Amino acid sequence: MEAPTPLPLSFFSRPTQVVARELIGCHLAIKRNGATKRYTISETEAYDGFDDLASHASRGKTKRNEIMFREAGHIYVYLCYGLHWMFNVVTGAAGYPAAVLIRGVRTQDGNLQYNGPAKLTKALGLTDAYNGQILSRDLGLWIEARKPASPKPIITATARIGVDYAGPIWAEKHYRFLLA
DNA sequence: GCAGTGATCATA
DNA sequence: ATGATCACTGCC
Length: 180
Hints:
Strand content: 25-35%
Oligomer: single chain
Largest sheet: 9 strands, antiparallel
CATH topology: 3-methyladenine DNA Glycosylase, Chain A
Helix content: 10-25%
């Protein structure tokens, strides 16, 4: 059987809300020690541009968030609350800060679920070693499209989690996407 | 409900 | 140099 192709970087070079929604049902692939593991993406959140007060980028470019300003397909990993790694994929045009936080995955057989951004980075071993890299087969970390034959995922959108500090306008936007 | 935990950023 | 904050989790 032919190996599935990684999503092209042009997939990510679109509005972050679109990418966040379409990533649901796609497969996160990790190759380590010659073995590739695949996980179905079940929860995402979009962080969009300069004005989004929930986004790190809303207060301008800094040493930490400059990854968000790079070309789509870059990986942005940062430490939250001193102990949790958060895994994001940069989206949109270069120079425009946007990213999708991967918040949940499940194994393809559905037996294991990691529902929580820090739980999945811990389970999958995703750390700042990937920060600033680009998704690719060479890196050993990439994302594949949902199999065309598989049923179309049922997706719901809700407000994002843990962003009340951003104020109601931005906290209430339905930028979180979930696989039913 | 809230402690843990430390990088990051604004302020000085 | 200091202090507040934080895209969370797990245990009370």
